[in-house]
C-alpha cells in the first residue's frame, strides 16, 4: 500500500481552504457556527425578547451545555474506542438519575449545601449511581457486544443491538419507577443568584457547569498522562495494532465502558436536578448528545464539551422565537450542517 | 536449538489455503530474509507466526515454548515483536506515546532506559518525540514502528516489508538500521520485496512461492543461484 | 353455520388464500392456485365451524399485521436491498398517514371548526389519498436524501432517527397543520357504505342484501380485504423490481460499491431511488393505517411502534427477503399481541399484591422486545428466511413466485 503524503497541518492552511479529503477547516466551520448563533441572537432580539433576556438565555444555554457535556464526553469516549453509536447511552443517564433518586429517598434528608438545592445524600449517591451504571454497561458489553466483536460482526449490527438495549433498559426503568415525572427535592425552593449584567443563575446550574469542566479536564488528563488512558487512545486509533503491541484490548474496552457510563450517570443526575426526572430523559437527550459528539469530533473530549456548549446555547437561544419543544430539532440541524462541511467534526485528529 | 522453529505450517483465510506445509527456522542473532513473488503468502506467514492467524496444521515454537495457537499479546511477553507492513503506528499519538505503547505489557514501570535505548538507535526520533506520528513522513513512521517494537527488548523481531514504498536512500538507511539492531543482539526475520538488498545483508534466506518453500540457503548462495536470480531477483 | 359467520369466513378466505399462494410458491401455477384455495378454505371454514368467536380477533390482528408487513417491505427495500440503516421509519409512516387524513377528510365546519384545525381537507376519494400519501412520503425522502444519504451508515442511522423525531414534533406542535397535539378525527373509511340502510349503490342487489346482515363493528372484514390486496400489490411490484436489472444493480451497489461504480452504475442515484421507493411503500402503509384508526395523532408514531418493532420484524423474518419481511411482521405482531395478554393477566393478578407494579406491567413488553432484538442480532442476524441469491428470473428452472 502506498504511503499517503503527509497531511498539511491545519495551521498552514488558509481559513477557508479544503483539506485533501474535501472537508473544510475547523476554523471555517467554527466561524459558520458562530454566525449561526449570532443569527439566532438577532432573531430572538427581533422577535421581541430584550437583550438582557437573550443574555440570560445564552448563560442558561452554556449551563445546559454542561449537562449535555457530561453525557457527551462519556459517549465520545465509547464511540471512539468501540466504533459504533451506542443508542442506549442515554439510558445510562436515566439509570444514574434514578439510582441516585433511590438513594436520596432512602438516606436521611440533610440540609442543602450552601445555596445549592441538594444535600449530602445526593453527593453520596453520585458515586454509587456511577458504579451501578458502570457495572450495567460492562455486563451488557460482556453478554452482547463482545460476542458480536468476536464474530467480526459489522458495526451496523452492533448499532442495532444497542437499539434493542435502549428499549430493554427503558422498559426496566419504567417497570421499577413508573412513568411519572419526579423531582429530587420537590417543594424545595431553588432561588437564583443575582449576578452582574442582570443574569440570574441558580447555584445548581453553576455547580453543574463547573463539574462538567472539572470532569472534562480530569478525563483529558487521564487520556494524555496515564498508561491506561493512552492505551484507550491507541485502541481507538488502531485496534489491531493495539493487539500487536500487546495491549489487552478487552481490558481497555471494560475501562471505557466504566468511565463512559459513570460520566453519563453523573450527567443524568445533574439533568434531573436542573429540570426533572423523567423515564424517557435518556431518549430525549439522545439526539443532542449525538449532535454534540459528532460536531466535536468522535473521540475528542474537548470536542464533546465545545459541541455540547454550542448545542446548549443554540437550544436556549431558539426558544426565544421557536417552540421550545423543537430543541432537539435545532441540535439536529446544527449537526447536519457540520456533517456537510466537515464530517470528521471540529476537533478530529485526522 | 533455534530461536524460532516453524514446522510444516498450513494456514489460510476461510476456505482458502495460502500456506502449504511451510517450514523455516531462525537462530538467535541471525538475520533471515523471506523473499518471493507477490501473493506467495509471505505476509500470511508472518501473521501466522505472530498469532494473528491460527495455523490449521503444523507447529511453531519460540525459545522452546509452543506458540502455535498463542495470542499476540502473550507472544509479545515471550520476547517476539512484530512490525506490520501498513498501519504500523498510532497516528493520533505522539512518537513518544507510540514508544510507550510498545512497552505496554511491561506494566507501570519507568521506561526512560528503554526509551533512551531506542532513541540512541534512531536519533531523529528524539528530536520529534512530541510530534504526532500521523504527521511524519513514511521513513520516519517506519522508524517509529520499529522503535516501538524494540521497546520490550525482544529477542526476535518480525519485520513485514520494512522498506515498502520508501525512496532508495531511505531503503539503504533502513537496512543499515536493521543491521544495527541485529548487531545489538536481536534476531531478525523479515519479509522483503527488495530481494537483492535484503539477501545481501541476511545471513540466510528462504524463497517462498505459491505458499510453499522453494529455495533455502545462505544469503550469498541465494544471490548467486541462477534459478533464484532469474525468477526472483529481476535478472 | 349462519350467514354472518359464513360471510366472515369468506372475507377471511382472501388473505388465507394469498397466504397459501406464498407458502406454495415453489409449485407450478395450476397446482399452486388449487392448493392455496384448498388450504385457505380448510383453514378459514375450520375456524368458522369450531371456533367462530376467534374470527373477529383474527380479522383485526391480520389487518395490523398486514400494515406492518407493508412497513417491513418498505424497510426491506431500503435496508435489505441497498443497505440504508433507516432508523426513521416512523417519520415516513407519519407523513403518509397524515397526508392521507388531510386529503380524504373535509375541512372542519360549523361547531367543529372551533375545536379542530387542519391545513386543508380535500374530501378526496380513497385511492387518491393513498397515492398522495405515497408520493408525499417519497418527496420527503428525496428531499432529506440529498444532504444525508451519502453519510456513513452510523451517521445515517442517527440522522434518520433525528428526522423522524422532528416530523413527530411538527405534527405534535403545529396546530394549524393537523390539529396537533389533538387528534385528527373523522377519517372516512372506504366501503363503509355497506352499513348504510340502502347499502352501497354500486353493488348488485343480491350481494347487497347478503351483506346487510353485517354490523358496523364488522367493518374490519371489509378493510381486511382492501389491505390484503394492497399488500399483494406491493409484494408483487417489489418482487418484480428486485429481479429486474435495477434490483441487481442495487444489490451490486450494496455489496461492492466500488466495483459497481466502475461498471458504470450510477451509484448515487441508485441509492436515492431505493431510499425513496422504500419511503413510498412506508407512506402507503400510513395511508392504509389512517382510515382503519379513524382518528390519528402524533402519539401513534412514536419510535417504539413505528420504527423499532418494524426493525425487529425485518431482522427476524430475514432482511433481503420480501417473504421474510411479511413473515417477520406476522410473527412479531403475534408475539407483541401475545405479550399483551400476558401482561394484562399479570396486571390483574398483581392488582391486589402490588398495585404500583401492576399498572406498569405493560412496560414489560418493551423490555421483552428489546431483549428479543438483541438476541436476534446475536444468534440469527440473517433472520429466518435468508436472502435468496436469485440472479434473474430467466436463469433458473424454478417457477417464479
UniProtKB/TrEMBL annotation, chain A:
Domain of life of the source: Bacteria
Transmembrane segments: 28-47, 59-80, 92-110, 122-144, 156-177, 206-223, 252-273, 285-314, 321-341
Coarse class of the protein's main subcellular location: membrane
InterPro entries in the record: ABC_transp_permease, BCAA_transport_permease
Membrane topology, record value: Multi-pass membrane protein
Pfam families with a match to the protein in the record: BPD_transp_2
Annotated compartments: Cell membrane
Biased composition regions of type Basic and acidic residues, renumbered to the chain: 1-21
Region described as Disordered: 1-22
Transcription regulation found in the keyword field: no
Signal peptide residue numbers: none
Keywords carried by this UniProt record: Amino-acid transport, Cell inner membrane, Cell membrane, Membrane, Transmembrane, Transmembrane helix, Transport
Family, similarity comment: Belongs to the binding-protein-dependent transport system permease family. LivHM subfamily.
Protein name: Branched-chain amino acid ABC transporter permease
Provenance organism: Castellaniella denitrificans
UniProtKB/TrEMBL annotation, chain B:
Gene Ontology terms for molecular function: ATP binding
SUPFAM superfamilies in the cross-refs: P-loop containing nucleoside triphosphate hydrolases
Gene3D superfamilies noted in UniProt: P-loop containing nucleotide triphosphate hydrolases (3.40.50.300)
SMART domains to which the protein is assigned, alphabetical: AAA
UniProt family annotation: Belongs to the ABC transporter superfamily.
Natural source organism: Castellaniella denitrificans
Record's keyword terms, sorted: Amino-acid transport, ATP-binding, Cell membrane, Membrane, Nucleotide-binding, Transport
Matching InterPro entries: AAA+_ATPase, ABC_transporter-like_ATP-bd, ABC_transporter-like_CS, BCAA_Transport_ATP-bd_LivF, P-loop_NTPase
Annotated protein name in UniProt: ABC transporter ATP-binding protein
Residue ranges of domain ABC transporter in the record: 4-235
